[in-house]
């Protein structure tokens, strides 16, 4: 499909080897959080994703307007889905409660949930409503020092994430509740809906993954969230198990919009692929433009494969082998599985994006329909009238 050496050479030296999750690593490596000592943000190892930029960040997408401009225009014109606006706080008081627990404003710290490239995620409980919230904590000074592209810093990614989440309101997408940015401090906080946990293969399924009924339910939730995003011309850019959270009632919600992009229209061409490499579509490795929605669908396929088999379809012992697996090697189905499910996997993980199943085809696939029937349609509040 692509010239192996010419295409791969573009990515040499663009990230540490641990970013690519070779087979010499444990499978858990792909789902683990970074462990840092400072709960309120700090300096983090940015090896979770790899910047595959070929050109300046300004060439990231072909529409004339960048994501930030598009989002601000939608917000200003009321073309947003949220009924309750995201709360914005510009005076942040950090203190302790009577038991010595750290507090940020009215939120009382309970324990750290995880951490990523730039932020800590800590569980807090509101002293006002008693509810639990997941708070992402950043250091602005650190974000501003991290160059993600020639003209962009990590702060740009975080601010774009906030803007995107200000628009969204869907039962299968994690909700942003409040943003706290005190100009007199170095701290920046995103207060998010708390979702109880992440899913992981139980080994109870026929092939070592989840039970087929659970896989179908989870996939339907993820697809519903993705359809909503794509209808609003939002490309997530990093669909993977780590960014799919499960509520106590078993509802899957899409999280982490830190590398997402918004488009003015249906033209979703991208050049930079900042997602996680083992979930990256073959066309993203070519060094030329590709379509973000089709790449999201490929990542959905890799996620489905992981749910079914408890492992990834394309990995290697080295960076070059991983690249070759994704771009050139066929998908292997280990053991016997439902023939309709096999057909679905083959359709989603088609290496040629022109023939890859689209989300509209996936929702009509017999295995996805199952006994449940069509995925419920979401009624959108925004003025775009596109859901």
Automatic annotation (TrEMBL):
- Provide the catalytic activity annotation: L-seryl-[protein] + ATP = O-phospho-L-seryl-[protein] + ADP + H(+); L-threonyl-[protein] + ATP = O-phospho-L-threonyl-[protein] + ADP + H(+)
Q: Where is the composition biased (Polar residues)?
A: 52-61
Q: What class of enzyme is it?
A: transferase
Q: Does the keyword Nucleotide-binding apply?
A: yes
Q: Where on the tree of life does the source sit, at the highest rank?
A: Eukaryota
| Any GO molecular function | protein serine/threonine kinase activity
Q: Where is region (Disordered) located?
A: 35-61
- Which Gene3D superfamilies does the record match to this protein? Transferase(Phosphotransferase) domain 1
Residue ranges occupied by any Protein kinase domain in the UniProt entry:
107-368
Q: Which UniProt keywords apply?
A: ATP-binding, Host-virus interaction, Kinase, Nucleotide-binding, Phosphoprotein, Serine/threonine-protein kinase, Transferase
Question: What are the recorded Gene Ontology BP terms?
Answer: intracellular signal transduction; response to virus
Q: Name one GO cellular component term.
A: cytoplasm
Q: CDD domains in the record, alphabetically?
A: STKc_LKB1_CaMKK
EC number of this enzyme: 2.7.11.1
PANTHER family in UniProt: MAP/MICROTUBULE AFFINITY-REGULATING KINASE, SERINE_THREONINE-PROTEIN KINASE GRIK1-RELATED
Protein family: Belongs to the protein kinase superfamily.
Q: What does this protein do?
A: Activates SnRK1.1/KIN10 and SnRK1.2/KIN11 by phosphorylation of their activation-loop 'Thr-198' and 'Thr-176', respectively. Required for the regulation by SnRK1 kinases of the transcription of a large set of genes, the modification the activity of metabolic enzymes, and the control of various nutrient-responsive cellular developmental processes.
Name of the molecule in the record: non-specific serine/threonine protein kinase
Q: Which organism is it from?
A: Papaver nudicaule (Iceland poppy)
């Amino acid at each position: 499909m692509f010239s192996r050496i010419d295409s791969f050479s573009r990515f040499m030296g663009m990230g540490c080897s641990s970013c690519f999750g070779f087979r010499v690593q444990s499978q858990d490596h792909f789902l683990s959080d970074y462990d840092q000592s400072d709960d309120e943000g700090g300096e983090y190892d940015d090896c979770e994703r790899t910047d595959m930029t070929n050109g300046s960040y300004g060439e990231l997408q072909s529409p004339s307007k960048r994501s930030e401009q598009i989002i601000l225009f939608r917000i200003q014109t009321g073309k947003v889905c949220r009924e309750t606006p995201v709360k914005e706080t510009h005076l942040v008081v950090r203190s302790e409660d009577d038991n010595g627990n750290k507090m940020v404003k009215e939120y009382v710290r309970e324990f750290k949930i995880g951490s990523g490239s730039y932020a800590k995620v800590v569980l807090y409980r509101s002293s006002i409503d008693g509810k639990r919230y997941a708070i992402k904590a950043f250091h602005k000074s650190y974000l501003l020092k991290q160059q993600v592209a020639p003209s962009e810093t990590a702060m740009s990614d975080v601010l774009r994430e906030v803007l995107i989440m200000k628009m969204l309101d869907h039962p299968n997408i994690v909700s942003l509740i409040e943003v706290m940015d005190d100009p007199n401090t170095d701290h920046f906080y995103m207060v998010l809906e708390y979702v109880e946990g992440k899913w992981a293969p139980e080994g109870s399924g026929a092939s070592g993954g989840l039970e087929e009924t659970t896989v179908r339910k989870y996939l339907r939730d993820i697809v519903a969230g993705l359809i909503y995003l794509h209808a609003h011309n939002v490309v997530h850019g990093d669909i993977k198990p780590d960014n799919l959270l499960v509520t106590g009632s078993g509802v899957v919600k899409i999280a982490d919009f830190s590398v997402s992009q918004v488009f003015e229209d249906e033209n979703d061409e991208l050049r930079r692929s900042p997602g996680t490499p083992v979930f990256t579509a073959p066309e993203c490795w070519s060094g030329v433009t590709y379509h973000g929605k089709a790449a999201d669908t490929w990542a959905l396929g890799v996620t489905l494969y992981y749910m079914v088999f408890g492992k990834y379809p394309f990995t290697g012992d080295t960076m070059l082998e991983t690249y070759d697996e994704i771009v050139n090697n066929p998908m292997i189905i280990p053991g016997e599985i439902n023939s309709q499910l096999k057909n679905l996997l083959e359709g989603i993980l088609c290496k040629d994006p022109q023939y890859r199943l689209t989300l509209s085809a996936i929702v009509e696939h017999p295995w996805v329909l199952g006994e449940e029937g069509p995925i419920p349609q979401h009624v959108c509040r925004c003025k775009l009238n596109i859901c």
